[in-house]
Amino acid sequence: MKRIAMILTSACILLMGCKHSAPNQVRVNQVGFAPDQEKTATIDVCCAKAEPCEVTILDAEGKAVWSGKASETMLNPVSGKPRQIVDFSELTQAGEYTLKACSKEPIADARFVIAEHPYRELTRKALRAFYYQRASMDIVEPYAEGYERKAGHPDDKVLVHASAATAERPEGTVISSPGGWYDAGDYNKYIVNSGYTMGVWLMAYEMNPEYFGALNLNIPESAQPVPDMLAEAMYNIRWMLTMQDLDGGVYHKLTEANFEGFIRPDECQKTRYVVMKTTAAALDFAATMALAARVYAPFDQDFCAQAKEAAIRAYTWAQEHPEVYYDQPKMNEEYKPEITTGAYDDFDVHDEFYWAAIELAILTGEKAYKAAATEHAKVIAEANGQYTPSVWGNVAELGYLDWLMHSEDEAKNKINMEALFEYLQPFLDEAESISVHRSPYGNRESDFFWGCNSEGCCWRGVECLYAYRLTGDDKYRKAAEQCLNYILGQNATGYCYVTGFGTKPTSHPHHRLSFSHPKGTHPGFLAGGPNPMRQDAETDGVQYPKDVPADESYLDYQPSYASNEVTINWNVTLFALTAGLDAL
C-alpha cells in the first residue's frame, strides 16, 4: 500500500486556492471496454484554471500499469462546469482496473474492465427484460433467474370499447388478446409502440444473425430451432395479430380505462378494452408483419404466410382510411368510459405509410408498393427535410435503413446514404470533440428530453453502426462506442443508466413490476434519462434540486416518470447498440 501511495503522491499536482468539486468525480464506462476501442474518462476538476490532472491506472493487484495526463480544462457547454478528459486507449490488456486522478485531495477514482466481449451479458439482460415484461403468463424458474412472479392480465376477456365498435363487433363484444409485453412502467399494450419496437428488433437481428443465433436467453422457448431472440419477439408478434379486427383494421391499444396503481400484475382487477382502430396502428402493424414474414421465413412458413396476409389486409385498410388519427380528448367527448392511459397520438402518418410500403415492397417485390413509398417520401422530405431520425411516432428512417440493406437500386441508395451521412456529421463532430478535448461528453442542451437516453443516444449509436456497415469507416464505430460510454457512466450524473449494471446503476425506475417485486428492479432496463422539461415536477412527490442543468436533470426515483421510466421501445435501442458493438 505504501508503494501505491507513493505513486499517487508523486502524480498529484496541488492547486492552491481551489476547492475540488463534488464526489464521484471520474465519469467512465462502468461496464467495460473492448481491447481495441477508444477509452476515455471525464474528470471533474475544481475550477477553470485547474492544471491537467495526473492519472494513474492500477490493475487488480494494485500495480500501476499506465500513467499519463488529462487534457487541459474545458467547460461543459451544457452546465459550464469544469472538466478534463483522459485518453487511455493504449491500455489494451484484458483485466480489472482502477483509474485514479489526483489534483487535490480527495483522490478521485473509478473502476473499469477491459474484456473481449464486455457487452455480452448486458445484451443478454437487456433482451431478458422483455421476458420479464410478458403479460398473461407466470414468470417461473429456471427462466426467472430470481425474479419469479405470478401472471397478470390474461386478457382472454377483453371488451371492445365504444370507439372501436363495428356491426360485426359491437360495443362490449368480448374478444381474446393474450400475451405480448407490458409497454413500459404501466400494464398496457400499445400497437404503435410495439410496431416500432419490433421494427428495430427484427432489423437488429438481420444485421447480426449469427451473433443473436448463438445468444442463449434461458426462456421457455430456448429448446426450439428458432433463435431465442426471435422466439422472444414472437411472443409479442402473436399478440399483435390478435389486435387486427375482422375488416383488416388494427386496434390502437389494449388498456384499462385508467392506469393501475403500483401493485403486482396479478392483483390488477380493472376491466380491459381494445380501443379505436387507427391509421397509424394499421400501418405500423403492416410494416411489422411484412418484416416478420421475411425474417422468420427460414423457421416457420405457416406463420410467414399468415403474417404476409395480415400485413396486406392492414395496409389496404389504411389506404381506405388514411386519416383516422388517435385523438384521445376528442374520443372521450363522444365515447365512454373515458380512456386516460398513454395516447401515442400521431397526426401525420406519411412516415408510417412509407415504412409499411417499403417493407411490403421488399417482401413482395410489387412495384405498386415502391411507387407508394416514393410518393410518401416526397411529402416527408418537403415537410421535414431529407432525413429524420426515427422514434415511435416517426418511423420513416426504419424504411430508409431497411431499404439500404436490401435494395439494389444504387441511385436511390446513394441518395439515402448521403442523407444519413449528412445527418450524422454534427454528431461525428461532437464525438471527435471528446477525442481532442473540446467537449467533455459530446452533448448539447438540445440533446436532453423525455427518453433522450434511447432516442437521442442509443439510437444515434445504432445509426452510426449502420453507417459503419455501409462504409467500413471506423469513425462511425468510434461514435457508436462513445454513445454507449455515455449510457454506461461517462455522463454528467455519473450514473450507469442500465439497471443492475455498473458501480452506480439506475436502481429505482418508474416501473410497476420493479416496484411491486420483493427483489426490486430487474437488471437490464434502460432509464429514460435527463429531462429538463420535468413534466413530473412537484407531482407525486417529485422535486428536483433547483438550478440543475439539463444534463443533470435526472432522478433515480420511482415517481420520476419524466426521467426514470423504462419502456420497450427504449430497451430495444439499448440492445441493438450493445449487440451491434459486441458482434464487432
Structural class: alpha+beta
Low-confidence stretches: 1-24
Query: What is the CATH architecture descriptor of the largest domain?
Result: Alpha/alpha barrel
Strand content is 5-15%
Coarse shape = globular
Rounded radius of gyration (Å): 25 Å
CATH fold name of the largest domain, please? Answer: Glycosyltransferase
Helix content: 25-40%
State the total count of DSSP E strands: 13
- Ends apart, CA distance between termini: 39 Å
| H and E string | HEEEEEEEEHEEEHHHEEHHHHHHHHHHHH
Instruction: Determine the mean pLDDT.
Output: 92
Q: Helical element count?
A: 17
Q: Please identify the top-level CATH class of the largest domain.
A: Mainly Alpha
Largest sheet: 5 strands, mixed
Number of domains: 3
What kind of assembly state do the chains in view correspond to? single chain
